[in-house]
Fold these 3 entries.
Entry 1:
Amino acid sequence: MLVLIIGASILIVGIAYAGVSGSKHDFSIGGTSGFQADTETEVCIFCHTPHGASDVPLWNKTTNSTGYTMYNSTVSSTLDATVPTAPTGVSLLCMSCHDGVSAINVVVNYGPNGPISMPAASDQLGDLSYPPSRNPNLTKDLSNDHPVSFIFDTNLITLDAAGGPAQLKLPVAPLKLFVGKLECATCHDPHEEGKSTGTTPFLRMSNAGSDMCLTCHIK
């Protein structure tokens, strides 16, 4: 049984590595994301560490939950979900790079080569400019982004329907909830950019015809 578990773990890690390598989340010297290390060859180290992690899933970055402005009921009067004052769970992990000011090359545990060096002008997502439709620099102002880190259950659907026809339904695979919450990773798979499947940027499914949106929203 132990052999089977270890074998399955290696297979999962291998699949994840294959998806990240060469993607926008590959910050190693061999990557092409625009944020490349000067010498670091490891791909997974920028997010994960096998020992002494700061959080699950073996997270290799420190997180900071202060200073956020969230999309909540003060932004939208039609939002019935209770949104926390900062991202939680996997969304907060995403923001350890996507806040635009956290250094990509600063991790909890470095590899055998020591600290990771990057060109000073490209070690934060806020260092570069992007098209408005594909801007990974979310900053800590999330009031103009889809709400995250809220409990998404039948109670929310009932509450949403109280003012009129039901507008929501629970997501189904390949979308997923995390501990019952909608998070960044509900719609995005950080290990699969989607270049070969037409699901960029890191979408869990195609949004052609708003298909992904309509998985939860009844329109």
Entry 2:
Amino acid sequence: MTDHPLSREAQAADLLAGGRYRAARRLLLEGQGPQGAGELALLGRALIGLHEHGGARAALEQALALVPDDPAIRFDLARALNGLGLMHLAVPMLEALHAAHPDDAALADALATALRRDARYEDTISFAESLENAGLVTEELLYQRALSAHALGDAAGALAVFDRLLTLRAGHAAGLFASHACLLALQGLPAALARLEQAAACPGANRKYRAFLDAYHSFMGEPVTDGGGNGGNQAILEGALALRPHLAPDCRLFGLSADLLRHGLEQAQVPGLVLEFGVRRGTSLRHIAAAAGQPVHGFDSFEGLPESWGNEPAGTFSTGTDLPAMPGNVTLHPGWFDQTLPGFLADHPGPVRFVNVDCDIYSSSVTVLTALAPRLAPGSVLVFDEFIGNRSWADHEFKAFQEYAAAFGVRFHYIAVSPFTGQVAIRLLSVGN
């Protein structure tokens, strides 16, 4: 007897099983390209492995049109949507799959991850707790649950879940890293640095953990390395070093977004408007509203990023235009900033007390700062959500603020920094020459 040669589909499946995504893609694109649902699905999976999520989505949607009820293709399509930042589309697909396969741990992990990335933090926690009550506990479910509690401002609750995760696997580097932010809030900087050292010492740990250690030592005024050993994560240290010339003598380090926002509001003593740009699901706006003691205004298109930002494509962070539920002292202003802000400012005179700029990208940050410039006064406090801590930090919110400060003769201090979240709070000292 002679062995029959493997079909192209079988060969591609073998390549994918070995993690050879480029070879699988090349094979499937030969000749007339992928034929049938099976080859289209494999191409989609290969493209996901190569982080080409747009192409993966197209291939998987074609495959799904041929076999609409295939759960594996639906799962991979949800993965592609998640990779495109379209979590609001991925979540319903994963929820339907989970309802049909409630004992599938990998599916549960994927749904928890998508919920958390969609900023549905309460839902993530409830989902993970319900699975635990049903007897399903995984490392990923604990990790996503802890990250969600952190985002909601619950340092103690998050740390308790992180510590449960670390009981399951003491060398969970990502859990060690993220939990340092909770320790910073609860026990102070020495405990946070000790936990961060543990994360950096894990075999195969992300080199950014060592870069964060260098950044903290920079904020403490201590000598640091040049970051050369951190590869592409040198940007983390560079961001910290860029802040040093304007650090306030009493600048504080924070581990939680909610704590930094509250501190910024406490330091904003000038009566005036309290604003947020970039609302999404409303987590930070609810923190602000609870501490502001006055009306608060939130601006967002709710359609996601208007253009790409780093690895995030345009449309990332969309809520599908759903508006989040807000406290009674919050007014939402849906639409693009350049369309909603001029009319709002015409109807609301006076200075700005506090503004949370969660625009991420340069162009949107420039739009906001240009419009608010006549209203920003000595004592105004600005918080930026992605000021440092990512590879493109110098090209977006940081750049927009430096240009504003130079154009209007602004003197300022950085009064609070959260290296983990990338946030910075800035108090204006004087405006104009």
Entry 3:
Amino acid sequence: MPVEIIIKIAALGIVIALLNQVLKHAGRDDQAFFVTMAGMIVVLTWLLPYLVELFQSMQSLFGL
């Protein structure tokens, strides 16, 4: 896994955390929830190719 993806995830996490706090402080808890879920979906789509590669290497390693 490249270091760039870890830095991207950390940066997005900081931005999402700040947005979440601002929205919760403004009384918009529902929008804060959706912003957090959108951040999780973005991170999962970034990680999906690496997870596929991991499972393929495990499959070839164990001969399944």
